[in-house]
Design a protein that fits this description.
heterodimer; A: mainly alpha; globular; B: mainly alpha; 21 helices; 75% helix
């Protein structure tokens, strides 16, 4: 196993990219390409399982590290590694991508080759973001996710896809420019892009002029991440992107891309600038709370199924930010758990919405009604995932939000109280939506004869449903893995917190 | 001139090696001029093109050979060092790629080849000489050689009025600008008593700096700023780029620019003129902003790329405001990767333009992703590189320039720069969007890609990607030549 330990991370990262190059060489036989993409993504998934399984839980710091010099001047390394948190985010990525391949099997029938090339490139870039320990490498992968995602939306999306693609691209690109400026500043002062050594240098006060620049650096990183999350008021690109994106694009966008933002906050804002995070936490928490409540309220009135799920994402991701900036063990563990849970359940919701779209070519809730009669299996899956998403105990949504709220309570009771209303709201909009789509009589003639799920769609949905169940029943598998990583991140805060309590 | 002691009256053989690439290019150019009236018009295209290509490839070889013999030559007027070798190599490669692109283009446009190839080679002579000249008067002569041939090349689509307009406009404004440069040289001579860069450096670093020296640099900067299309001397660019033949624009926007940037590097860093950074600061900020904003509303691809080249001149100038040991390698890397991506983009544009350059508007590019997937993919990569997306040379180019500037505490300029690259993303994206996300309105017949164009695209593509994945080697070479330059 030790031989695999040293290369497994590199393999997981680049298997999809290698796959995309092979797809490029394959002849344009759509069926073969689909099968090939499925095999490649499954291979990446199986390989990635090695990461959490063989992770040394009690060992702090990063594991499976690879550190090679890429460019000598400037001093850029190919430095990757994972801790308990990022290992599971990698698995989330590799878990969702094969499902994306399955769910796009029929709905993508034009320019199939290009579609799977883009999807595979996107997977490599996403994994790269979670494993990079070199700021430059991180930025490199971060930007590299933009192009395939924008093209997926723009080439395979619906109606206003071009507008949505450009909006998505420009929003995130402009925001990440601030991060680039901050990274360059850090490099100029420390001579290194290495996350671990920059962290140590800041901690030991070896960075010149750091005190004056720290708040700006914090903000530079924060803006890039906040747009990606998206945190209120930077969220306006998200509903557009989701509504126009093809199903696979939505699944990866909600499931993984948004987590890049929260992961970035966790790793870089909290990891590099603990003091500034503490100082700015109050307004970040308020924005997160606004996001939770505002997202839920707007979701409540959406006539469009996909837009509803999109706004629910804004609400759920608000929980993540709330948990992160509570600086408590419970909050951090919970936030990370919500990231995974939201990835699975919202990914599944988007797949379900996509299945409906394939049959009716609309997302308007008013077009449906009484679907439980013609599509019982579909309705069951939908109910299960809905319950998971709204936080029913024993399913995956519950435990994460519970931990986040308890963390927020520890920080300041009012944050917990306000956050908790978000849970109630999410029950409202999800159950009301479910009622309108599935219950009562079939209102429209065309819906009478809708076919139920076929084998392929069931195969795509079962893993997500199972994951939602297992995460709800046995959350300790995940929480144990997060603990060491969260403690390492929180260590600098302990000193700061004692200062605050002392006065 | 330097004092006469230690200078031979007659140049030695080795000194001819130090101008070997220029000699090779001149000979090839002259052979073309002689053969042109002798060969049959239908066959001349292939024959003369091949001679020109051979000439430029031989110049690359001569450059590699020459790099074994660094040193001064011709009464201290020419200096071969790593720096000059870098730019010789760049100019000669660009010339070869442009010739490969022109091959097919000239046939489609039905322009008589004739002196076209000769002029490209003569232009290349001037550009090569610019990067190795260490004597302001010689730099001026080289600048004129390069300019005059590009003036003529700009007007080569004789049947199109817009091309003649481009030529005349470029000629009138260009001569005005070179006059500024010459005036600057004269003032510098007045201030320091010499036109040799090494002597100027010595004079300026010992005594107090006369006001005349500042004025001289400012005037030289006006002349050179015009040539690289830096704001506020950029007004000519869109019109000239729109009118000139597409491969010529690819040439004009890369090789002479690289050469002039080399001259600027020598003047600013080697001659070590103190404290001109505010001048560069303003020019850089203006070029980036005006270029990008101008490009936002363009419908003509060539005009769009013209504004984009103004913006890129701005990014490049940012490096000149940095400290020499970071700024010089950053600028050299930028010229190289800009040459690769821009040449590639113009190669695709010249192919799509069709007879009479009819299809050069944004809406002509709609649906191109379906009609010719490979060319569209190539253009996409060049455009992504121009935006500055990872895995392409453009990304590292911007990255080095901005990080050099941050190291000199020019955070303000860097913020302007990064915001500008975000604006820039929009108009490059418009082309990608048109190609992939919109459907064709009218059927445009696609001609197959010729071998020459394919080779030109392959070279540009490989260079763009190589610089984007493994930029280390080129950067290391550039850093070494920078230490040679600033000593």
């Amino acid at each position: 196993m030790s031989a695999l330990n040293s290369v497994v991370l590199t393999l997981v990262t680049f298997v999809p990219l290698a796959g995309s190059l092979l797809v490029l060489l394959l002849p344009r036989r759509d069926r073969d390409i689909r099968w090939f993409a499925l095999v490649v993504t499954l291979l990446a998934f199986v390989l990635s399982l090695h990461l959490p399984v063989h992770l040394q839980r009690d060992q702090p710091g990063f594991q499976y590290e690879v550190n090679l010099q890429w460019i000598s001047s400037p001093n850029i390394h190919y430095h990757t590694g994972v801790d308990g948190i990022s290992a599971w985010l990698v698995v989330l990525t590799t878990f969702l991508t094969p499902l994306c391949v399955l769910i796009s099997w029929k709905s993508i029938h034009e320019r199939v080759k290009e579609f799977y090339i883009l999807l595979l490139i996107l997977e490599t870039a996403l994994i790269g973001v979670f494993v990079s320990l070199d700021l430059f490498l991180f930025y490199f992968f971060w930007e590299a996710t933009l192009i395939p995602m924008a093209l997926l939306i723009g080439m395979y999306g619906h109606g206003r896809r071009v507008y949505a693609a450009i909006k998505f691209f420009l929003y995130t690109m402009i925001a990440s420019m601030f991060m680039l400026a901050a990274i360059l500043w850090l490099y100029a002062k420390t001579g290194s892009f290495d996350f671990v050594s920059i962290q140590a240098a800041i901690h030991n006060g070896q960075v010149e002029h750091f005190a004056n620049a720290a708040t700006w650096l914090f903000l530079g990183f924060f803006i890039a991440f906040a747009v990606k999350v998206p945190l209120f008021p930077f969220h306006t690109w998200l509903p557009d992107a989701h509504v126009e994106a093809p199903t696979a694009g939505s699944v990866l966008l909600a499931g993984v891309l948004l987590k890049m933002g929260t992961y970035g906050m966790l790793r870089f804002n909290l990891g590099l600038f603990p003091e500034q995070s503490r100082a700015n936490a109050w307004w970040v928490m308020i924005l997160a709370l606004i996001g939770i409540i505002y997202g839920a309220l707007v979701a409540l009135v959406q006539p469009n199924l996909k837009k509803l799920i999109a706004y629910s994402s804004i609400s759920h991701l608000g929980f993540v930010v709330l948990g992160l900036f509570s600086f408590t063990q419970a909050g951090l563990d919970g936030a990370t758990f919500v990231m995974l849970a939201h990835g699975v359940s919202t990914g599944a919701l988007f797949m379900l919405a996509g299945i409906l779209y394939e049959r009716r070519h609309t997302y308007e809730i008013s077009e449906f009604g009484g679907l439980a009669t013609p599509m019982p299996v579909y309705a069951t899956f939908f109910l299960f995932i809905t319950l998971a998403s709204l936080g029913l105990p024993l399913l995956n949504g519950f435990i994460g939000e519970f931990l986040v709220l308890s963390g927020a309570f520890q920080d300041r009771a009012i944050y917990g109280v306000l956050g908790a209303t978000g849970v109630i709201w999410s029950a409202c909009y999800l159950l009301w939506m479910y009622q309108r789509v599935f219950f009562s009589k079939v209102t429209r003639e065309t819906n009478q004869s809708l076919p139920d799920l076929d084998m392929r769609e069931r195969v795509a949905l079962w893993p997500a449903a199972l994951a939602a169940l297992i995460m709800g029943v046995a959350p300790l598998i995940w929480l144990n893995a997060f603990d060491t990583a969260a403690q390492a991140i929180l260590a600098p805060f302990a000193q700061l917190a004692s200062k605050v309590v002392g006065k | 001139m330097n004092d006469a002691t230690g200078l031979q009256a007659v140049p030695q053989a080795i000194e001819y090696i130090r101008i070997l690439p220029e000699i090779v290019l001149s000979i090839a150019g002259m052979v073309i001029m002689v053969l042109d009236p002798l060969v049959d018009e239908r066959r001349s295209q292939r024959l003369l093109g091949t001679i020109a290509l051979t000439g430029s490839l031989a110049a690359i070889g001569a450059t590699l050979y020459q790099s074994q013999y660094p040193g001064l030559g011709f009464w201290n007027m020419v200096q071969v060092d790593q720096f000059s070798v870098f730019f010789h190599f760049l100019v000669a490669t660009v010339t070869a790629v442009v010739i490969l692109t022109s091959y097919e283009y000239m046939q489609t446009q039905q322009i008589r080849a004739g002196e076209y190839y000769g002029l490209i080679l003569f232009g290349a002579v001037g550009m090569c000489l610019m990067s190795s000249a260490v004597e302001l008067v010689l730099i001026f002569i080289a600048l004129e050689i390069s300019s005059i041939s590009t003036y003529i090349l700009a007007g080569f689509r004789r049947r199109a009025a817009i091309s003649s307009e481009a030529s005349v406009k470029y000629f009138l404004l260009g001569s005005f600008a070179t006059a500024f440069f010459l005036y600057g040289v004269a003032l510098m001579f007045g201030a320091t008593g010499s036109t040799n860069i090494a002597v100027i450096r010595e004079k300026l670093s010992t005594g107090p700096i006369p006001l005349l020296a500042y004025t001289g640099v400012a005037f030289m900067f006006v002349g050179l700023g015009f040539k690289v299309a830096a704001a506020p001397f950029h007004i000519w660019t869109p019109d000239v780029y729109e009118g000139a033949p597409a491969p010529v624009v690819g040439f004009m926007s890369t090789a002479p620019k690289a050469a002039v940037f080399a001259v600027l590097l020598r003047i600013i860093f080697e001659a070590h003129i103190p404290d001109v950074s505010w001048l560069i600061w303003i020019a850089a900020a203006l070029s980036m902003t005006l270029g990008n904003i101008g490009a936002l509303i363009q419908e003509n691809i060539k005009r769009l790329l013209a504004y984009s080249s103004i913006a890129h001149a701005g990014y490049l100038l940012v490096a000149y405001a940095a400290l020499p040991n970071n700024g010089i390698p950053a600028a050299m890397f930028y010229t190289a990767s800009y040459a690769a991506m821009n040449l590639g983009a113009f190669a695709v544009v010249s192919h799509f333009a069709g007879a009479g350059e009819r299809y050069v508007n944004l809406h002509d590019y709609e649906g191109l992703g379906r009609r010719s997937p490979l060319l569209a993919a190539a253009l996409t990569i060049f455009l992504l590189s121009l935006i500055g997306i990872p895995i392409t040379g453009g990304f590292f180019a911007k990255f080095y320039v901005f990080s050099a500037a941050v190291q000199n505490n020019l955070v303000g300029l860097v913020i302007i720069g990064v915001l500008n690259s975000a604006i820039g993303a929009y108009y490059y994206l418009r082309i990608i969007v048109a190609m992939y996300m919109r459907d064709t309105r009218e059927e445009i017949a696609m001609s197959p890609v010729s071998l020459g164009l394919g080779a030109a695209l392959a070279v540009s593509l490989i260079t763009t990607l190589y610089l984007g994945v493994l930029p280390g080697w080129v950067l290391k070479y550039a850093s070494q030549s920078a230490t040679g330059l600033i000593r």
